[in-house]
Every structure is written in structure tokens, then in C-alpha cells.
Amino acid sequence: MKSVIVVGSGIWGSSLALRLAETGWRVTLIEQHQPGHVRQSSAGETRLMRCAHGTEEWYARLAWRARDGWRRLGERAGEELYTEAGMLWFAQVEDGWEHASAQVLKNLDIPCEVLDPADGARFFPDFNPAGLSHLLWEPHAGVIRARRATQITARLAEAAGARLVRGRATPADGAAVEVGVEVGVEVGGEVLAADRVVWACGAWLPELFDVPVTVTKQDTLHFAVPAAWSTPGTPAWVDHAAAAYGHGDVDGVGMKATSDAEGPAYDPEHGERAVDEAGVAHARSYLVRRFPSLASAPVLFSQVCQYALTPDAEWIITETAPGVWLLGGDSGHGFKHAPALAEYMAGILDGAYGPEPRFGPHERTPTRGLRTSGQAG
Ligand SMILES: Cc1cc2nc3c(=O)[nH]c(=O)nc-3n(C[C@H](O)[C@H](O)[C@H](O)COP(=O)(O)OP(=O)(O)OC[C@H]3O[C@@H](n4cnc5c(N)ncnc54)[C@H](O)[C@@H]3O)c2cc1C
């Protein structure tokens, strides 16, 4: 039986552990805290699911496949983990990112519709279309209950036979491992060995490996809103150029309205998880601009998370030594893809194909765009 050690029980590691445990691998999943712990990027209350990725077809296809995965996960869990509330993209220019996205989605037969800015009033109780050229409607996009989905995925992986080991793993120095046959990790003074190791360590990856990943602090804000702003009903929304996004109130946690501008450098293990005044002001300024009746809505809930950013926002999927794989650099846009990414990564570990060159160890050219513009606008 093939064996694998997956380090990290965020949504990437847990989804991979589940996939491999269900397809004939002996799986050990190592986590320094516990699946769904609040330092994880995956432990955000919610994450957006969308297929639009500008000119990028590869991610659009992957997201569309992942949608099935989220729906299946919800069915297995017996609860709705993915709320398909739709998403409105607020396009500031006629032939920009949203226009390119619409072309790709149409080519891939993924439903979408270009709408007039004034149509926004059909989707939100209050909407100011000022400064918008058009809207792009993705009816099958929506909101994932992220932390819950991560905990359930890890639990299903265990139920499928994965062994969950609590502790901080480091690469084994090779002494106790038969070189070329197995690869190993050290955890709690013990060396564990397997045919493959996958380091899915999120923002902790740069502590262990020389990877081009910068970790930034990201404040997430939810505002108290009247019932008419609940999701489903109210869709998710993104203003790519202004680096702002959110969705209506899911489960009484409030309407999410958050800046996606990249924050200051951050330590995911020891950093204080308190939002900055500036983060609140920034989120509110977009709310005021687009949804004026919410101008004085109080903050109801906030979370501090971190991005693990590569220079070009493309992920890292690379083999650093035979059998040793890095899976990271999610760059703030990895959650939605997790079930499909796990399937893709399983194919790589099975030797069916290699990773796309874009995920390799080459020098990356600084670019943004796969998430949002990454800059406040
Ligand atoms: C504010 C914010 C908003 C976002 N919004 C979206 C969105 O709308 N849509 C979307 O698709 N994505 C979004 N993302 C990105 C998404 O959350 C991440 O891509 C995804 O959660 C990454 O998961 P991961 O498993 O790689 O990392 P993590 O969830 O961080 O998990 C890594 C795990 O590895 C463990 N670990 C690390 N090192 C070790 C070690 N040495 N030994 C043992 N365990 C270890 C950690 O404890 C942690 O549990 C957002 C991210 C943030 C911060």
C-alpha cells in the first residue's frame, strides 16, 4: 500500500488527506494545533467561491470542478457548507478584468451574465452604482462556510483511515529513513516515514523551506445589518479594481465587507489577532460608497487571518527532493479550489502527470490579479 504523510490540516492538507485515504493510500496527517484552529487561513468564517479569474482558464476550470466537491461534501456532512448565492462583480471599466472573465466563462460554458450597473438594485436592498461600467453576474458562485468545511473534511479523512498526529513536524535529517525508498518527517522526537511527504503548511511554509512566500496580516470585518441583507438572498460581491469584497449575512455573523489590499508582514503563530482601526475604516469606506444605507452599521464580528503570497499569486506545487512535495503559496485565493486541487495533487503523487510549470520553483515575476487587484482603490 502506498503511504503518504501530509503536514498541515488546513483545507489544502485535509482535502488531500481525504482524497488519498479514499483512493488506497495509507495517510498520516500531521497538525501542530488542531484542524480548524483559528490561526489557519482556512479557519475564516466564510470564503468566496467563484469561477471568474480574468483571462485565466486553468483556475476557472478548477473552481468549476471544485463546486461539485463542495456540494458533495455538504451532502456527506448532512449540512449546507456551500451557499450558492451567486456573485456580482462590480466592473469599473468596460474592457477590464471582468470583461476578460466573462469571455473565459462563456468559452467554458460556465453560466454568467453581463448586466447594467443599475441592475444592482435587484440584488441588494440598497445599491449605489456610481463609477461602475457594468456588472458581471455569476449565478453559481457563492459562499463556503470555511472553518466548518475544514473541520468536517479533516474528520472525514480520519473516518476514511487517515491517522491524525498532533505536533509540529520538521523535515527529518534522513538518519532514520532509508534514503531513496522513503522520506520522513520528525514530530515530537519521533521520525515518521512514508513513500511521499506533502508539506501543506500555509503561512508556516517559509519557516521550513526556502520559498518565495510573504505572509501578510489581513483583517476581515462583518457588519450588523437588517434581515433583508441575509445570504442567500443577498449575493456575494467583489470589486476587483478596488480590492474590496464581501457577502450578505450568513448565519447571523453579519454582512462581510472587507478590503483585500495586502496588509503588513505578519507572524502566523505569534502575531496578535486584533484588527486595526485602519482596517475597520477601510472596510467601512467601501460599504458607505456602494451600500450607503449601511454607513453606520456597527462591526459585529471580525477575524485576523494571513495571506501566504507568492510574487505572482500562482501557487507552489513542487518536488524539492524525491518524494518530498511542497503545496503552498495559496496567495489568498486557494480555499474554493480545495476539493479539485486535492484530486489534481493526488494525480501528481500517483505519477499520472507532473504539475503545471506555473507552480514550479522558477523566478516569479511580480504580478497581481488572480485574487483581486491586491491594492486599495
Ligand atoms: C482574509 C482571507 C480571505 C480569504 N478569502 C478567500 C476567498 O474568498 N476564497 C478563497 O478561495 N480563498 C480565500 N482565502 C485563501 C484561503 O483561505 C487559503 O487559500 C486556504 O485557506 C489555504 O489553506 P492551507 O491549507 O494552505 O493553509 P492553512 O489553512 O493556513 O493551513 C496550514 C496548516 O498547516 C499547519 N502547519 C504548518 N506548519 C506545520 C508544521 N511544521 N507541523 C504541523 N502542522 C503545521 C498549520 O497549523 C495550519 O493548520 C482567503 C484568505 C484570507 C486570509
Write the layout of secondary structure elements.
Elements: E1 3-7, H1 11-21, E2 26-31, E3 46-49, H2 57-77, E4 82-83, E5 87-91, H3 97-107, E6 113-115, E7 134-138, E8 142-145, H4 146-159, E9 163-166, E10 169-171, E11 183-187, E12 190-194, E13 196-199, H5 205-208, E14 214-223, E15 236-239, E16 244-247, E17 255-259, H6 277-290, E18 299-309, E19 316-321, E20 324-328, H7 338-349
Parallel strand pairs: 1-2, 1-13, 2-9, 5-15, 13-20
Antiparallel strand pairs: 3-8, 4-8, 5-7, 6-7, 10-11, 11-12, 14-17, 14-18, 15-16, 16-17, 19-20
Helix pairs in contact: 1-4, 1-7, 2-7
Distance between the termini: 53 Å
Major beta sheet summary:
8 strands, mixed
| Helix residue percentage | 10-25%
H-E order: EHEEHEEHEEEHEEEEEHEEEEHEEEH
Counting structural domains, the number is 1
Name of the top-level CATH class:
Alpha Beta
How many helix segments? 7
The counted number of beta strands is 20
Rg calc: 20 Å
How much strand?
25-35%
What do you see in this structure?
With 377 residues, this protein is an alpha+beta fold. It has one domain: FAD/NAD(P)-binding domain (3-Layer(bba) Sandwich). Helices cover 23% and strands 27% of the residues. The protein is built from 7 helices and 20 strands. Helix 1 crosses helix 7. The protein binds flavin-adenine dinucleotide. The site of flavin-adenine dinucleotide has 37 residues, from helix 1, strand 2, strand 3, strand 14 and strand 18.
